[in-house]
Amino acid sequence: RAYGMTPLRVNTFWFTIVLGVVFLFILLYQFIPKLNFTRCTAVSFAVLFCALIFADTDAMIARYNIEQYKAGEVTELDTDLLLFGLSDSADYVILDELDSIPAGGARTKLNSHMRSRAESAKMSLKDEEHSADWREWNYASYRTKEKLIEVFGK
Q1: How far is it between the farthest Cα atoms of the chain?
Q2: How do residues 29-78 score in pLDDT, each as one tens digit?
Q3: What is the rounded CA–CA span in Å between residue 67 and residue 65?
Q4: How far is CA 12 from the centre of its chain?
Q5: pTM for the whole thing?
Q6: Which of 2, 29, 49, 147 is deepest in the core (most CB within 10 A)?
Q7: pLDDT in tens, 73-109
């Protein structure tokens, strides 16, 4: 709690849940021998893996860390993690929360990096209009670029 949330902590917690489910099936298998242990474990893993992938954990990590910083639970906001260690979906959260972050070094650093990203986003959106390859596009990046331009102007 003193250091905030990180992707490593989220993934470790997820893996702990997976192991708990596996141990639960091992326990059930002791009392119900006809239980197909392999199938149950594989299906549970697939469901939990999909939950991890589609949960947008980077945005949740960014939102949690910013909220903890604003509440005074964390004394220092890890701006390096927010800016460089998370995906574009975290940038979207940073932009939403930027005005509510208390003034100081963290807000100044986030603001300056977001301004430089807004400049590159303007150029990137122009390039995407001329790009014919659909594989280069993703929604998180597009949404973040639009938000950067909205917040920092055209």
Answers
A1: 66
A2: 999 999 999 999 999 999 999 999 988 888 899 889 888 888 888 888 88
A3: 5
A4: 15
A5: 0.76
A6: 147
A7: 888 888 888 878 787 777 778 888 877 888 787 878 8
H/E stretch holding 140 reads helix 139-152
Query: Which residue has 């604003």 as its token pair?
Result: 70
Question: Which H or E run contains 116?
Answer: helix 105-130
CB 57 within 8 A of CB 7: yes
Per the structure block, which two tokens stand in for 7? Answer: 């992707």
Q: List the one residue out of 66, 61, 74 whose CA is nearest residue 10.
A: 61
> Which residues are CB-contacts of 3 (< 8 A; sequence separation ≥ 6)?
74, 78
Distance CA 68, CA 76 (A): 10
